[in-house]
Write a structure and sequence with these properties.
Elements: E1 4-5, E2 19-23, H1 27-38, E3 42-47, H2 53-59, E4 63-66, H3 67-73, E5 76-79, H4 83-94, E6 103-106, H5 110-113, E7 124-130, H6 134-142, E8 149-155, H7 161-171, E9 179-181, H8 184-199, H9 201-216, H10 221-230, H11 232-250, H12 253-266, H13 269-284, H14 286-296, H15 300-310, H16 313-323
Parallel strand pairs: 2-3, 2-5, 3-4, 5-6, 6-7, 8-9
Antiparallel strand pairs: 1-9, 7-8
Helix pairs in contact: 1-6, 3-4, 8-9, 8-13, 9-10, 10-16
């Protein structure tokens, strides 16, 4: 049975008098920093000189300094810059200031698990990984609730790493929803697999292929968009609220029968085999090596893929239809 922790299991006083350095102020960074500040913690934000986020953080009432200065002053550092920037930021600005009195934290295990960052053995290394985008995490917190987080301990040099991580998790609001213990390996590999096979790669490829199938068969692109893209949110919201059974209860019997009888033909054993191969590439480090090499080589293939995806007909049709529905922006 998975180990879950809640506010009652956390001792926020462990962070009292300590300085928490939030390295980065993007989607996750701003939510962590502001939630911790509202929880009474002493927070510093570490950015590079000239960052567009510098003034935003200051306007939010946060103390801001360059990363090296934050690394010097902070007792706990949460690294929230993008995965592929973490190695350079760590080597240049954080590592020189690490000592056994400090703790290093991450919200995703990529850099640690794939050895892009190798901290000294006398430093606590932990993870609190909120399971929501930063803007949602912040919104939920301001409403008196929280989003779940994953907790993992990579190094427990002090013997207090878990307690400190739980206090941090409670500080960002996750103790209100639940903090699930895992490992850096499990979080990293399942996170990448979920993104690639379902949340990003799987669902976008399924939508695009279904859209193309209908348009190639002579149906109007606008109708294809509504059926294959627009209504996805309606189904996902039902799944999010009550699981598959609740979704099936909420749709028509015709839709439910189509789910049972045709879904397994679309996502068949061939797809399962492909998913297994995708997982093996993650587990072996093949994907990580490929992504690191892509960054080192200038992201040419990545940018080409991004441009091709942006030019797909579903994006043009979708923009025209969404422009007719301005209320959609209020539901995000």
């Amino acid at each position: 049975m998975a180990q879950m922790y809640y506010e009652k299991d956390a001792d926020l006083s462990l962070l009292a008098g300590k300085t928490i350095g939030i390295i980065g102020y993007g989607s996750q960074g701003h939510a962590h920093a502001l939630n911790l500040k509202d929880s009474g913690m002493n927070v510093m934000v570490g950015l590079y000189k000239g960052s567009n986020s510098w003034s935003k953080a200051e306007e939010a009432g946060l103390q801001v300094a360059e990363v090296a200065e934050v690394a010097q002053k902070a007792d706990v550092m949460m690294v929230l810059v993008p995965d592929m920037r973490q190695r350079d930021v760590y080597n240049e600005s954080i590592a020189p200031h690490l000592d056994p009195s400090k703790a290093l934290m991450f919200a995703h295990g990529f850099s640690i698990h794939f050895k892009m960052i190798v901290p000294p053995p006398d430093v606590d290394v932990m993870m609190i990984a909120p399971k929501a985008p930063g803007h949602r995490m912040r919104e939920i917190f301001t409403r008196g609730m929280g989003v779940p987080s994953l907790l993992a301990i990579y190094q427990d040099a002090s013997g207090k790493a878990r307690d400190l991580a739980l206090a941090y998790g409670a500080g960002v609001g996750s103790g209100r929803a639940g903090i699930l213990e895992t490992t850096f390996k499990e979080e990293t590999e399942t996170d990448l697999f979920g993104e690639q096979s379902v949340l990003c790669g799987g669902i976008t490829s399924l939508i695009k292929t279904a859209f193309e199938t209908l348009v190639e068969a002579g149906y109007q692109p606008e109708v294809a968009y509504f059926e294959c893209m627009h209504e996805v949110k309606l189904i996902v919201d039902l799944l999010y609220q009550g699981g598959m059974a609740y979704m099936r209860y909420s749709v028509s019997d015709t839709a439910e029968y189509g789910d049972y009888s045709r879904g397994p033909r679309v996502v068949d054993d061939h797809v399962r085999e492909t998913m297994q191969n995708v997982l093996k590439e993650i587990q072996s480090g093949e994907f990580a090596r490929e992504w690191i090499a892509e960054n080192d080589e200038g992201l040419q293939r990545f940018r080409t893929s991004r441009q091709e995806a942006a030019e797909h007909p579903i994006e043009k049709v979708g923009k025209e239809l969404r422009d007719m529905m301005p209320w959609l922006q209020q539901t995000i």
